[in-house]
Amino acid sequence: MNIKGYRGRKILSLILVAFILQLSFPVTVGAANNANLDLNYLLYVKNLLETHYFYETTESELIEGAIRGIFQALDENSQYYTREEFQRLTEELSGEFIGIGVYIKEDKGSIIISEPIKGSPAERVGLQAGDEIISVNGENVKGKSLEEVTQLIKGEAGTTVKLGISRNNNRIYKNIKRAEIIINPVEFKILNDRIGYIKITQFNPHTYENVVSALREFDKKSITNIIIDLRNNPGGLLSEVVNILNLFIPEGPIVHVKYKDNVEQTYYSNLKKPKYKLAVLVNENSASASEIFAGAVKDTKVGTIIGVKTYGKGTVQNIIPLPYGDGIKLTIAEYQTPNKSTINKEGIQPDIIIKSQDQQLKKAIEVLAQ
């Protein structure tokens, strides 16, 4: 036995025990169970930290940590957001923001442009996917985080930001005027002169209007066979997906939403006679509102679901702002398909299971051609 090591551990244990014995606990050992964990107990722990914790911390940091801790006891989709995080969340959900209109990512310590948004200031000045951002307004961004670079690029509409870009070992500098960016989550085209294709990347406030525009173009060419691509669509607004389903689903229930205390609300379609035949593409990243769409199409048999089983997020969240600009996302309900199938943690099983993305699209064209 390592006597020296053993004695060292024993001394350390004695120091810990001696310190613990000096603390005055307000409850007995036998009563220390979850039934006694109340706000007074939380304040007691907070006071202990403020009195004895070695490293410097602030009361606001402790309170933020406590709030985040509360949400760890809830489901994975309920979350607390700081002021900055909540601002980003609301921008993402609104589909609108002030900026230059570019998606960026962090890759091995570099900030890379994933894709400029179509029609944005970034696209107009010629920024390309794969460009590396090396400076913002003359400030070197090497070693800065994605969030730090994003904040440097942001600013008021109408103001200008100067980006330094590295492309193919050449340095390029672009002055870009910031503007209001509206994200169009819908892309559409015509395949084989007779099949409409609509890709929906998310259900934001602009999804319905852009789907209507796509259908209007298809109607001009008498196209009634349509592929709806929901692969990698994480979901979005319940109201948007319900409005869009009213364009496709026959009269009857679209989705059932079950709230606390056995309160249930059913959303209905008023469409007398569907005129479109659908093939819906899904994968393991199709979630939430995408699953509402796929579930309604499957149950009402107005189309064929093709791909692999969806994510299985069958819950509804409410976004609640808090007084200091922070906010929370809170699960308030679960939803079920028209036939009352539960989706949460189950997902939607496709009618035709195909793993290859290329083969999924090929199969959709084949199904609609029959």
From TrEMBL:
It comes from the Bacteria. Keywords: Hydrolase, Protease, Serine protease. Transmembrane segments: none annotated. GO terms for molecular function: endopeptidase activity; serine-type peptidase activity. Residues 86-154 form the PDZ domain. InterPro entries: ClpP/crotonase-like_dom_sf, PDZ, PDZ_6, PDZ_sf, Peptidase_S41A, Tail-specific_protease. GO terms for cellular component: outer membrane-bounded periplasmic space. Coiled coil: none annotated. GO terms for biological process: proteolysis; signal transduction. Pfam families: PDZ_6 (PF17820), Peptidase_S41 (PF03572). NCBIfam families: prc. Belongs to the peptidase S41A family. This is Carboxyl-terminal processing protease.
